[in-house]
Amino acid sequence: MITLISSDKRKFHVLEEVANQSLTIRDVIEDRRGRRRADRIILVTNINSKIPEKVIVYWLRHFLMPEEIAHASMSHKKAEKLKKWEAKFFDTDIDTLNDLILAADSLDIPSLFDGACEKVSDILKNRSAEEVGEISKIENEFTHEEEEEEIPSENAWVWRNEFA
Amino acid sequence: MAIGCIDQEKSFRLVHGTKILGRKRVVIAQDSFNSSGVLSPVSFPQKRRSRRPQIERFNMLESLPKDMLVKVLCKVDSSDLGQLLLVSKTVNEAALIARKIHHLYSTPTKRTFKWLDASNNYEDAPNAPMQHRVARSRIKGKNLACLAVDLFLNYDE
Q: What DSSP designation does A49 have?
């Protein structure tokens, strides 16, 4: 058992095999093998407790179905089920996705990172610049001239068909 | 999110340290980093932007460190990249980097080749002879199966 402690001092007890899905945690555990019991406590800070919860849920789901097996011999039905589950898992607000991406990066969980990124790119798909700004609450700091002339002229590739 | 060892007396300082950086990722107290010898794949943000007021902090794309933003934009469809250039300066820079390192080398999606789709804008060549019947493929499913088997038999010999 490993204990993860979030920034708001909440404790999460996780099986070592489950937490091993994070390459960062795996390295930390590997490094401290054979030491005192207190060393099995890992501090996971800088993020609210909602995210560790989500990450652990994700781990548990994937622990039942390790990736290597998933690709090689998983039945079509099971794969479909997992896909559906992931779609539901990532169907959250954009701030949570943001936190998930950060968490997946620092904990080094490639599949979670890819999943969250794909969801973000799905959100951005086929949207105009204004819409993207609205969704992600970014204020447009470009002047009108820049928007109309400079950027299009500097980046002609956007409007030119590169493969023509 | 930070990973650090809890060394009984250091733990308080660790948590305190993360507060200063706010949502910026990865904070590892320097001494615990060295003592544990963990070479985790974490990197420190190259430059810290000045602190923003509390409300603005939840800018989705901009609150991500730049390298992460680039990774996210690598997943975006390349045809959507153009609009992202106009969103903001940070996103603009990140989109350009993403294009340089990923989109220029990735296989274009079907959408990019839409103009090539023959069924959409097929035009007859000038002075081409009229075709009265459509040429039908002479390969049928059954024949194809035999062909494959024969090939493999030859290969065995």
A: T
ipTM comes to: 0.70
Q: Decide if A117 contacts B72 (C-beta within 8 A).
A: yes
DSSP A76-107: HHHHHHHHHHHHHHT-S-HHHHHHHHHHHHHH
Give the CA angle between residues A160, A163, A164 to the nearest 5°. Answer: 75
B-proximal residues of A, 30-49, CB under 8 Å: 31-32, 38-39, 41-47
CA–CA distance, A132 with A144 (Å, rounded to integer):
17
Over the stretch A33-73, which tens digit does the pLDDT of each residue have? 766 655 667 777 666 667 777 888 888 877 776 555 555 55
Q: How many CB atoms lie within 10 A of CB A69?
A: 10
CATH number of A2-139: 3.30.710.10
Q: Is the Cβ pair A46, B72 closer than 8 Å?
A: no
